[in-house]
Amino acid sequence: MISIINYGTGNLRSIKNGFSKIGVDASITDDIYEMEKADAIVLPGVGAFGRAMEHLEGFEGIIHNHINAGKPFLGVCLGLQVLFSESQESEGIRGLGVFKGQVTRLPEGLKIPHMGWNNLKIRRKCSILDGIGSDYMYFVHSYYVKPEDDKIIAATVDYGVDVPAVICRENVFATQFHPEKSGEVGLEILKNFVRNIP
Question: Domain count of the chain?
Fold first, then answer.
């Protein structure tokens, strides 16, 4: 069973539809008990870092417990960014702290938000990228992550700066782009994620 955390942000329905397209049932839920039983958890999201963390307050424990139990976890877009320690977007607001690092605004002079298709540059092996190369993915964001440990970066895109596009460490996966909006290749990433479920 896959649980998509409903924490009052957008993009929940589209990620559920993405799983439906590959024949996988995923439930949108705010029920802690259901999440505790889940084989995998997905944290999507659009919007502001601070508001997201405010709405995630009741879910932090279940997220950390799930990850610490070695179960597959997928963050998408804002769901990637909140896995980090902090963000310039919301000074003083603590992130989930799954990864150390800061979320930083894209540099001045670039078109912000970064909206549209960019091709991946694969940096290292990661199971959700099996069969994926320099394919184009769909992005919508104004901030990007700067991990303290760059070994967790599995793929980047060039948008004036190297933007980490895929984060991968053990059972935790996250994409800055929207796989569910990235055509057949994006759906392949969701299939790869599902293959990590025991």
Answer: 1
Tens-binned pLDDT, residue by residue, of the chain (198 aa):
999 999 987 778 999 999 999 999 999 999 999 999 999 999 998 889 999 999 999 999 999 999 999 999 999 999 999 999 999 999 999 999 999 999 999 999 999 999 999 999 999 999 999 999 999 999 999 999 999 999 999 999 999 999 999 999 999 999 999 999 999 999 999 999 999 999
Token pair of 139, please? 């992005």
Can you give the CATH number for the domain in which 177 is found? Answer: 3.40.50.880
Nearest-10 Cα torsion for 145, 52, 57, 166: -30
As annotated, the active-site residues are: 77, 178, 180
pTM over cut 0.90: yes
Residue 136 sits in which domain range?
2-195
